[in-house]
Design brief:
Blueprint: H1 5-9, E1 33-39, E2 65-73, H2 77-88, E3 95-97, E4 106-114, H3 118-121, E5 129-137, E6 146-158, H4 162-179, E7 182-183, H5 198-206, H6 210-219, H7 227-239, H8 242-248, H9 254-265, H10 270-275, H11 279-303, E8 316-320, E9 326-333, H12 339-347, E10 351-357, H13 367-379, H14 385-392, E11 400-403, E12 405-406, E13 409-417, E14 425-434, H15 439-447
Parallel strand pairs: 1-4
Antiparallel strand pairs: 1-6, 2-4, 2-5, 3-4, 6-14, 7-12, 8-9, 8-10, 10-11, 13-14
Helix pairs in contact: 5-6, 5-11, 7-8, 8-9, 11-13
Length: 457
């Protein structure tokens, strides 16, 4: 099965299933991609306004933090939170959430707001955003409380008869179920689909190539971005004139304009230009490259015919919480002597095979798997551990482990519809993923799109 070039550029070089994809498109409208957050106590935020009770032990008695459900349509999470805080007249830092949700979607998630009342929360007025108070809790929300997300996604414009589409979906899910889930790739959103350069910028930053990193971020155009943005980047690439670029870059490219403002006065200080960016964005570049390397490791493992749900000597394995979340801080190295015992625990769901996220404190796997990972780093010109540790030390991130496999829970086909002659077949599917996992990786296996960008990824 041919893999699109953009997937390969992001390190996703293989499919885990051999079934025919159904094609089609996602995100034709915000309502086609619904995300509802699930907390570790089983509480689910709903886009329909049905509020659960006793979420995380919440009460009606006033405590420091007000727990709410935030429903948004076509909003970036950070910008939505910023506007909610502005409407409340408080600092943005007082609004905390457990996880970032898709922007081009309808999403529901929990938030806590420091020291406001339920009555005050009901007065928030932001277009396409609803804030619904649940009750009060004694601590603010964080990633610790997030179990995962439930997705309800419509795939439209499928060029197959309904029965064929259903058959291919069932076969794909059966294949994934046989191995215990999907390959736990970092999905397209981690890198940007319309302009997938985040990890390339991160690589250049690792290597201390600040000018290369800056020009990638500022001046590498994409056929899929707005024509005005593409034209401005192309002119900068050809002229290296930062002053003119500052005048020409569209206002919405605010981070690029921050860097250009600095480079107009200090045209050689590319490192200083990056320091003008928010720390979270600086970190995002580095994390994107770490994610790319993980995807490469995972792709190579699959290409070498190694299982994702059976360990080999040299693998890492991580613990699994009762909730099903991988416990990456609790890990073991697999050796020949403990291989049978560990695989029995993997089969029982108590351990999962894990791959390294390269970083300052994370070692590679050993044995055959370690050699595969070393070859990837050598191809990336990170030839030895001491070399890439030095390069990575210029960025952020101590690294860690990530499960190679992610369970796909409660998968179902909710609806199959078509117009006459099957000219407009669409399917609605629903499933739940644990936190840190990407719905588009499931959709990638189901759809196998020839062009992920036009398909809505």
């Amino acid at each position: 099965m041919a893999v699109p070039e953009i997937d390969k550029l992001l390190g996703m070089e293989v499919y885990a299933t051999k079934t025919q994809g159904i094609g089609g498109k996602i995100r034709r409208a915000a309502e086609d991609f619904v995300v509802e957050e699930v907390l570790v106590d089983g509480s689910k935020a709903s886009v329909t306004g049905n509020l659960p009770t006793r979420v995380l032990g919440s009460t009606l008695t006033k405590q420091r933090y007000l727990l709410c459900v935030l429903v948004k349509r076509n909003w970036d999470t950070f910008i939505a939170i910023k506007n909610v805080a502005k409407s409340l007249g408080i600092d943005q830092a007082k609004v905390q959430f457990a996880g970032i949700k898709d922007a081009k979607a309808v999403t529901a998630q929990h938030v806590t707001i420091d020291n406001i009342t339920a009555q005050e929360a009901t007065k928030v007025e932001v277009k396409d955003v609803q804030l619904q108070p649940i009750g009060y809790i004694h601590e603010m929300l964080s990633l610790f409380f997030l179990l995962g997300n439930n997705f309800t996604i419509s795939i439209k414009d499928i060029q197959l008869p309904p029965q064929a589409a259903q058959k291919h979906i069932a076969q794909t899910i059966e294949e994934l179920s046989e191995v215990g889930g999907m390959p736990n790739f970092f999905g397209h959103q981690r890198f940007g689909t319309t302009r997938p350069i985040t990890h390339l910028v991160g690589k250049a930053l690792f290597q201390g190539k600040y000018e290369e990193a800056a020009m990638l971020f500022l001046a590498k155009p994409s056929d899929h971005e707005h024509p005005a943005s593409r034209k401005a980047r192309q002119e900068l690439l050809e002229t290296n004139n930062f002053k003119n670029a500052l005048e020409n870059f569209p206002k919405q490219l605010r981070f690029e304009r921050l860097m250009l403002t600095h480079l107009t006065d200090h045209p050689k200080d590319f490192a200083g230009a990056f320091r003008r960016l928010p720390l979270k964005l600086q970190a995002l570049f580095v994390q994107a490259y770490q994610s790319y390397l993980f995807n490469r490791f995972l792709s190579e493992r699959l290409k070498h015919g190694l299982s994702l749900n059976e360990a080999v000597a040299g693998d890492f394995v991580v613990g699994v919480e009762r909730s099903g979340l991988p416990l990456t801080s609790v890990y073991k190295m697999v050796v020949t002597e403990n291989l049978a015992e560990i695989n029995a625990q993997v089969k029982a769901g108590k351990l999962r095979v894990a791959l390294p996220i390269v970083g300052l404190k994370q070692k590679l796997s050993q044995g055959m798997v370690g050699r595969i990972e070393s070859e990837v780093l050598e191809h990336e010109r990170l030839k030895t551990r001491s070399t890439y540790l030095n390069e990575l030390s210029r960025g952020v991130g101590k690294g860690g482990l990530r499960a190679a496999l992610a369970p796909v829970k409660d998968f179902s086909v909710k609806n199959v519809s078509s117009a006459p002659n099957y000219s407009a077949v669409w399917v609605t599917v629903s499933f739940m993923l644990l936190r840190g996992c990407y719905a588009t990786v499931v959709l990638r296996e189901l759809m196998k799109p020839q062009d992920p960008v036009s398909a809505g990824f």
